[in-house]
UniProtKB/TrEMBL annotation:
Family per record: Belongs to the DNA polymerase type-Y family.
EC id: 2.7.7.7
Listed name of the protein: DNA polymerase eta
Biased composition (Basic and acidic residues): 621-632
Class of the enzyme per the UniProt entry, highest EC level: transferase
Catalytic activity of the protein: DNA(n) + a 2'-deoxyribonucleoside 5'-triphosphate = DNA(n+1) + diphosphate
Organism of provenance: Prunus persica
Length: 705
DNA sequence: CATCGGCACACT
DNA sequence: GAGTGTGCC
């Protein structure tokens, strides 16, 4: 956990730590605990994460070690989570915001940048924000002798710049302001990257730390990537990056350019291959998701070495602690965000003393999640026992309770996933999630039903004997929810939207008493053609005047057939359409029948790469609705022609997706936004390349050249 | 044994 | 859809 956030949070608690070499450590007992965050001052002394506390004292005797809070015998990260939420609530003011991790956020500032460019472009500003002037602009030849700030100012305010760079400049101003805002309101500092897509923004954000921002002009992308070590790219820091280096001899991102998309797909599968081909060119269609809340909650702990758990009783004890924390967080999520988790998952790792198949993994198990701490504890234990039996296989060590010589548990974790917003009119429903005893009074007759739906009622047959009262309410989250929305009065609807505009509902009730100082990462992508950081800048963007359809720059637009193709899919769509219908009569579908034509949609005769690139580039043409893929962009002209992806349509899809005003989408509750965007975006393709059962296969040498 | 605990996502 | 594995912070 390299997160500096942890450090800053602690610094905020103890201001006198500022300027001192400091590290955050958890569990002081064994060798001084593990370092999980190290201040820059401490780094100068050679202190690294991966060191133990005692070790760090050796290289830096004066280091200040601060401990992670402990609750229920385990690390409690809630203060850090809350700190992240504080920042998110500020950053989400200016655009779509994705909370990528506890200390990382992506923003889509396209709209804000467009607006600024139209209404108050940098060139007319009289006073230039000092913070913006401190930006690092990649590729800006700071001609010796000239002041860095002055050249940044010139770049930011250049009148004759490419429009894409103008948007980035606006983004730089907006980000500078946001960072100041964060500092003012939370005392945390943050770094940021400003670029045309997420992966480049992410890359840039790490280039000048701490507390600085870096811009990647469109024209600098190629130079930047050419010599960039491959493993610096997000997602390539692990085995995939290793494989690129050792198997393909790719050491820099630029080295990737020599491989055809097909070649990369051959080796790494369709999706990864295409993804690699694209990022080599600075292209990424990865969208900023508009999600301020986590998709799952988990609580876990490791029991290394001699601490391994060897009795059911000890496992039960720790599961109780973990489940208690999880339950508490679920309850908070429910109260604050009106969301319900549907699935409980148990993970563990174990060792088994040498026996035949002794390095089998301890299996994960899941079951429907029932609210209430006691129920969660009970279910988690049942899951554990089921997994343990499977793990131990044939020989069932009967010895429970007392020491056993056969196995030991070295880690335990419980998590809750499939979290969806509560349908609506929550008041009467939510009480059932507060662990009310009333839950248990349900009919036996339904037990079978539940048990059937629940694959793992391990030992205790009573584990699942209680019917989950909430079930009927949440069984069809997608459809039900949408319908509820559709039926909601406009008042309630506004509530939903308020929730969204409220910035961060999840921290509304949390601390604003802030006094300190922090470091966090802000990643920003902006610009209309955000996905298109292709190398080929020779082609100026076409112009357009958006009237044609209700396309806004905040969303990629595709041609109509394309949209139709993507829109099909699940029945959930149907309910969403209803939502739209009620929302905006002007876009109302005439009929809601939808067609099951997704299956016959044999992939059109073009590669996914082409598909992706096309999509990316359409952005440039926005309202033009090109009939064919524009030749510009990615240099590789062999990809053109393919745009009729869609001619596969055929079906009787009766809803004109084009008629949905995309700007409306931004105003929907986040979960709906997500779903709606999902249709409009290209979907991942199934990997048709058969290669064996594991993805590790991709990393193995292949016969075909 | 001992980089912890935690997320997200791809793949089968 | 459940379970595994990877990768990041």
């Amino acid at each position: 956990m390299p997160s500096l956030l942890y450090f800053i949070v602690e610094q905020r608690k103890q201001p006198d730590l500022r300027g001192l070499p400091t590290a955050v450590v958890q569990y002081n007992a064994w060798k001084g605990g593990a370092l999980i965050a190290v201040s820059y001052e401490a780094r100068k002394y050679g202190v690294k994460r991966s060191m133990r506390g005692a070790e760090s004292k050796q290289v830096c005797p004066q280091i200040q070690l601060v401990q992670v809070p402990v609750a229920r015998g385990k690390a409690d990260l809630s203060t850090y989570r809350n700190a992240g939420s504080e920042v998110v609530s500020i950053l989400s003011r200016k655009g779509r915001c994705e909370r990528a991790s506890i200390d990382e956020v992506y923003l889509d500032l396209t709209d804000a940048a467009e607006t600024m460019l139209a209404e108050a472009p940098p060139e007319i500003l009289e006073v230039i924000d000092e913070e913006a002037l401190k930006s690092h602009v990649l590729g800006l030849n700071s001609e010796d002798g000239s002041d860095a700030k002055e050249s940044v100012r010139k770049w930011l305010c250049r009148n004759d710049a490419d429009r894409r760079d103008k948007l980035l400049a606006c983004g730089a101003f907006i980000v500078a302001e946001l960072r100041l805002q964060v500092l003012k309101e939370t005392e945390f500092t943050c770094s940021a990257g400003i670029a045309h897509n997420k992966i480049l923004a992410k890359l840039a954000s790490g280039m000048n730390k701490p507390a600085q921002q870096t811009v990647v002009p469109f024209s600098s992308v190629k130079v930047l990537l050419d010599s960039l070590p491959i493993k610096k790219m997000k997602q390539l820091g692990g085995k995939l990056g290793d494989s690129l280096q050792s198997d393909l001899g790719v050491n820099t991102v630029g080295d990737l350019l020599q491989f055809s998309e097909e070649k990369l797909q051959e080796r790494y599968g369709i999706n990864t291959g295409t993804w690699l081909w694209n990022i080599a060119r600075g292209i990424s269609g990865d969208e900023v998701e508009g999600r301020l809340l986590p998709k799952s909650h988990g609580s876990g702990k490791t029991f290394p070495g001699p601490q391994a758990l060897k009795t059911i009783a000890s496992v039960q004890h720790w599961l109780h602690e973990l489940c208690e924390e999880l339950s508490e967080r679920l309850q908070l999520d429910l109260d604050q965000n009106k969301r319900i988790a549907h699935t409980l998952v148990l993970h563990a790792t174990a060792y088994k003393v040498s026996d035949s198949d002794s390095h089998k993994k301890f299996p994960s198990k899941s079951c429907p999640l029932r609210y209430g701490t006691a129920k969660i504890q009970e279910d988690a234990l049942s899951l554990f026992q089921a997994a343990l039996r499977e793990y131990l296989g044939s020989y069932t060590a009967k010895m429970q309770g007392s020491q056993n010589n056969h196995w030991g548990i070295t880690s335990l974790s419980v998590s809750a996933s499939k979290i969806v917003p509560i349908p609506s009119g929550t008041a009467s429903i939510t009480k059932y999630f507060h662990g009310h005893p009333s839950c248990s009074s349900t009919k036996q007759s339904q037990n079978n039903l539940i048990e059937e739906a629940t694959p793992v009622p391990p030992s205790g047959n009573e584990s699942y004997s209680e019917v989950n009262v909430t079930k009927p309410q949440i069984e069809f989250p997608g459809e039900e929810t949408m319908i509820k929305y559709a039926e909601t009065s406009s008042d309630q609807l506004e509530d939903k939207i308020d929730l969204l505009n409220d910035q961060n509902p999840c921290c509304s009730s949390t601390n604003q008493a802030c006094d300190e100082f922090t470091q966090e990462t802000v990643l920003v992508s902006t610009s209309g053609n955000e996905h298109c950081s292709g190398m080929n800048q020779s082609q100026p963007m076409k112009n357009y005047s958006g009237e044609e359809s209700c396309v806004t720059l905040s969303m990629p637009s595709f041609n109509r057939q394309e949209q139709k193709r993507k829109a099909v899919k699940d029945k959930r769509t149907c309910s969403i359409l209803r939502f739209f219908k009620n929302q905006d009569p002007s876009c109302a579908p005439q009929k809601l029948e939808h067609v099951e034509n997704t299956e016959d949609v044999k992939a059109p005769p073009l590669s996914p790469g082409i598909q992706s690139r096309s999509n990316n580039c359409l952005d440039q043409n926005r309202s033009e609705l090109p009939k064919e893929r524009p030749p510009e962009d990615a240099g590789d002209s062999n990809v053109c022609g393919s745009f009729q992806i869609e001619h596969r349509r055929g079906g009787a899809w009766s809803y004109n997706i084009d008629e949905i005003d995309p700007s409306v989408i931004d105003e929907l509750p986040p979960e709906i936004q997500q779903e709606v965007r999902a249709w409009i975006r290209p979907h991942k393709r199934h990997n048709t390349v058969k290669r064996g059962s594991s993805i590790a296969h991709y990393f193995l040498p292949t016969k075909n050249t």
